[in-house]
Amino acid sequence: MTQADKRELEILACKARIGTIIGTFNAKSGHPGGSLSAADMFTYLYFKEMNVNAADPDWADRDRFVLSKGHCCPSLYAILALKGYFSWDELSVLRHVGAMLQGHPDMKGTPGIDMSSGSLGQGVSAACGMALAAKLDKKNYRVYTVLGDGECEEGEVWEAAMFAGHKGLDNLTVIVDCNGLQIDGTTAEVGGVEPLDAKFESFGFDTAIINGHDFDEIEAALAQAKASDKPFAIIMKTVKGKGVSFMENQVGWHGKAPNADEYKIAMAELEAQLKELEA
Amino acid sequence: MAEIITKATRESFGEALCEQAAVNPDIVVLDADLAAATKTSIFAKAYPDRFFNCGIAEGNMIGVAAGLAAAGKLPVAASFAMFATGRAFEQIRNSVAYPGLNVKIAGSHAGISTGEDGATHQCLEDIGIMRTIPGMVVLNPADHWEMKAATKAALEYEGPVYIRLGRLAVDSFNDPETYKFEWGKGITLEEGDDITVIATGLCVLESLKAVRELKAEGKSVRLINIHTIKPIDREIIIKAARETGRIITVEEHNVIGGLADAVCEVTSAECPVPVRRIGVYDEFGYSGPAKELLDIFGLTAPGIKKVIEEELNE
Fold this sequence. Notes:
Helix content of chain B: 40-55%
CATH architecture of the largest domain in chain B: 3-Layer(aba) Sandwich
Number of strands of chain B: 14
Shape of chain A: globular
Order of helices and strands of chain A: HHEHHEHEEEHHEHEH
Oligomer: heterodimer
Radius of gyration of chain B: 19 Å
CATH topology of chain A: Rossmann fold
Largest interface: A-B, 36 and 29 residues
Number of helices of chain A: 9
Helix content of chain A: 40-55%
CATH topology of the largest domain in chain B: Rossmann fold
Number of helices of chain B: 13
Radius of gyration of chain A: 17 Å
Shape of chain B: globular
Number of domains of chain B: 2
Largest sheet of chain A: 5 strands, parallel
């Protein structure tokens, strides 16, 4: 990846973070913390990795993406808007009555959303179904899903992992956003999900542990996933609330919207970052 | 009179899957380690490349089915009614029904006729659970011919469907030459003016026996078979309420949530009449041979006949 490519991704990711703040502020609700931690991965997937066409969202041969941690949709919505699936203005009415952008992803109402999700653990199963469909139809598309580390406390994640390993779904990439925090505290305190790499490996996955904010590492891990003849799990270490100083690593910012003062500070920080990137 | 075929509806379902798979290459079948019991084993043998055993993990199975449907396949996911609709309720609600995906869910070993396995496996709530989900179709076919036709119709319909399969072998009473399955339409099996019996699933044949005995005794009893519990045939129920003034429902299910409630929802709004409910009265079952249990719970012809007589004497 060239420096220019990387700069372009950083700019897009910063815009996705701005979109997250705009969306959750106007909704007076939502989940900024996990949206910000996964923003870099969403950016890379949609702008570098996945074979998709915003002008034809239902294209049969497209790569699929399932946001299993559906509550982190604000930054995904921002990325989809930047990619051209719908207008950026939709973010300012996120979660409003009659809005296209629901509190959790709605495949029927939102172009670019491949699976409705939000009930934790279920997206991984749906992603397995899509990967199996590709095999049955002898198609080359790949399926990606992002889930939270706290989400891995759901038993269904491991039912799905067993299924993917047993059925040899080498076209499936599971990405775990390990920001270390969930609603009631740290993942270590609440549920004890670690070690995630060893768990996925025992279910028949190849794995990589990366810094989820480093585009070079993201690129290398996704290339490794494609080369693997097994399903692949990327365990990405991230910072919850990444990019907004007062939200970073704060458990309280899981599911809380910024108030007017916090909105101003967050936007000023992100706009300064954007200005510097664009300079 | 058509030949009587004695067969569990789960087996008719397995056969129907094979017949439909021959004409629709998108059909794939999933099971959760109960293929031998749900009879998806018949499909698995005929179409091994289109059958996926998901292991004992019903929640994941339904999620996988949702993903398959989202990618254009036509998945059928089968398990015991208890686990298909109970354990995987939320996957059905959120991953299948909310996005309106084209997934068919089959629940076998429904009702008290599951028999010896006892309360944990005798699902008496599946119809109620599935009926509360927006957009979910609920089918409960009564015999071999109806199950085959219903399975075909379910696979031709675009959207989520729950279909209830029985464990116990039952005699067919429909004539394949004249039988017609109409989506959401009840079937009047016997005409009558003094009372209407509305039955579903294996209780239809038992009700038919009871009603025919009463007819022979000079009573005028109407009998309606409801194979589609949701969307229910409102017209046939309203007509029966208006013309006969009294209704009895018969089902192998809790009287809460199932056919009884579905019928009362129509009558209470459109034509309030007394509705006597035959079913399981909000309790768990227990172990025993299926036929004995059906007798004990009043779900065979003698018990049904007795209730009709009581109501006629009201």
